[in-house]
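User: My notes are a mess, but here's the protein and 2-acetamido-2-deoxy-beta-D-glucopyranose's SMILES. Can you give me a structure?
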Amino acid sequence: MLFTSVLAGLALAGAASARVEDLPRHLRLAYRDLVNTTSTNGNNASLPKIVYFGTGGTIAGSSGSATAVTGYQAGALGVQTLIDAVPEIINITNIIGIQFANVASDQMNTTLTMQLSRNISEYLAADDVVGAVVSHGTDTLEETAIMLDLTIKSDKPVVIVGAMRPATAISADGPYNLLQAVSLATYPGAAGRGTMITLNDRIGSAFYTTKTNPRSLDTFKAYEQGYLGNFVGATPRFWYEPAKVLNKPYFDVTNFTTLPHVAILYAYEDMALDVPLVSAAIASGVKGLVIAGSGDGGTDSTWNRQFQSLCANASVAMVVSTRTGDGSDAPDGDSSPTISANSLNPEKAKIMLQLSLAKNGYNITAIKKDFDSDYPTLG
Ligand SMILES: *[C@@H]1O[C@H](CO)[C@@H](O)[C@H](O)[C@H]1NC(C)=O
Ligand SMILES: *[C@@H]1O[C@H](CO)[C@@H](O)[C@H](O)[C@H]1NC(C)=O
Ligand SMILES: *[C@@H]1O[C@H](CO)[C@@H](O)[C@H](O)[C@H]1NC(C)=O
Ligand SMILES: *[C@@H]1O[C@H](CO)[C@@H](O)[C@H](O)[C@H]1NC(C)=O
Ligand SMILES: *[C@@H]1O[C@H](CO)[C@@H](O)[C@H](O)[C@H]1NC(C)=O
Ligand SMILES: *[C@@H]1O[C@H](CO)[C@@H](O)[C@H](O)[C@H]1NC(C)=O
Ligand SMILES: *[C@@H]1O[C@H](CO)[C@@H](O)[C@H](O)[C@H]1NC(C)=O
Ligand SMILES: *[C@@H]1O[C@H](CO)[C@@H](O)[C@H](O)[C@H]1NC(C)=O
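Assistant: No problem, the inputs look usable. Here's the predicted complex:
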């Protein structure tokens, strides 16, 4: 209700004249806070305005040792500290900093990321806000990233950034990553590309990019689809004209506070012994299950027969992804009871399935359409 009235209010005020000053009270207050507390130089009103949501993670991490890159406290430093650590930011943008949360990746969930999506959309509705930046723990960054990519309608750039080394480490990567993220969010050529992930001088699509290594700086990759661009210093450089994932679905989360429960099951030799895991998942109330299949979605045939029959009986949607970390599963035909995740890895497929179930209920044809975005087989 709150959001509908907010959006209706903006529409009445006339979208063309909406500025941050015209936004609802809670948004203006956050903006004022920042104007009042921002650092050293102060914000420069003639620069492009962006909104920056800090959520915690390693980029805001603190350790007693300058050499520790594990075992530190994630989400220890506030958004203002992060902005102050990079004074160059104030020279490229008039930044609105908001402390959305200050937690490690493992504390983020879809209730929070849907709220983040709505908060970002509210700010992007203002004409004078040109883009948004989110800083996030890297472990589940790709899940929040695809949530934002699937639920924010604006063409304005949304950039999600993290760091692999805590702020207290020698050669901490956070400050430069943040400067690049802010620069990307203000860059006119960044519009119309969906949500982007940036770390380690690279720009990737939120839809495809995944964390490939638990510690190295060069961890966010989409082996098959590649990067959208990179940076020369803090200046973005794109390889292609603005492009979006083919037929990417959009989900309106205005009215969702929680999503249907979906779990992920992993394939391995001997999994026939573990059919009870399927029964346990169903007993816990899942509405969908994603399989991290071996190879092209493979599972033990005995397990698979029982899995399909248990799920069909309980009206649980079955999505098949791959545990290989790359590539896409062969599309399922229209009549198959299972749904191919296509190019989405299991954790991204889980978010897509939750959103699709929330929108369509248990309608396998409709869910297949959402998953067939980058490999349309249903026309
Ligand atoms: C800064 O805070 C003071 C005191 O709360 C307030 O009077 C002033 O309007 C604020 N400045 C801006 C730009 O919001
Ligand atoms: C504000 O930004 C404009 C545009 O880049 C620049 O010309 C001006 O010098 C800046 N003002 C301050 C006080 O830094
Ligand atoms: C910001 O810009 C001003 C004016 O060009 C310059 O004097 C100052 O050194 C810049 N600050 C940083 C941190 O780059
Ligand atoms: C997500 O976290 C928030 C805050 O800790 C909590 O209130 C909410 O219930 C959680 N949602 C889910 C789906 O776990
Ligand atoms: C974000 O949205 C929630 C409601 O979903 C609202 O209570 C909160 O004030 C918003 N925060 C900001 C900074 O816009
Ligand atoms: C959200 O709820 C409001 C009020 O019930 C309704 O008018 C609106 O159409 C809903 N939006 C969506 C996308 O379902
Ligand atoms: C099928 O589902 C019903 C509830 O809808 C349940 O009572 C029954 O035990 C299930 N049968 C099997 C074989 O899982
Ligand atoms: C299921 O979804 C399809 C495709 O969106 C739609 O044509 C069909 O009417 C839906 N079926 C039901 C029972 O809602």
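The mean pLDDT is 87.
User: Great, I'll file this with my notes.
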